[in-house]
Amino acid sequence: YLPTLSSDRIEQFIAEDEALSVFKQSYENSMPMPTIAAMANFWSPMQTACTNLWKMAGSATISSVEEKLEEVTSRILNG
Fold this sequence. Notes:
The chain has 79 residues and is mainly alpha-helical. The chain is built from four helices and no strands.
């Protein structure tokens, strides 16, 4: 892999952008998830939950978000 920009220029670009800096920090603290079929038991319901939460946008309340997360947790744990 050969980047089109030097690493120093990339790092400088990221450092100058607040949003990119947050993504970089999040990435550095992340853990890769295994690519196994069993993970579909998590990601399939979670994708639906994230879509539903996104659609709630400005109408979301703490209790409505908690309710959606409890629903998806139950689906994941109980199959």
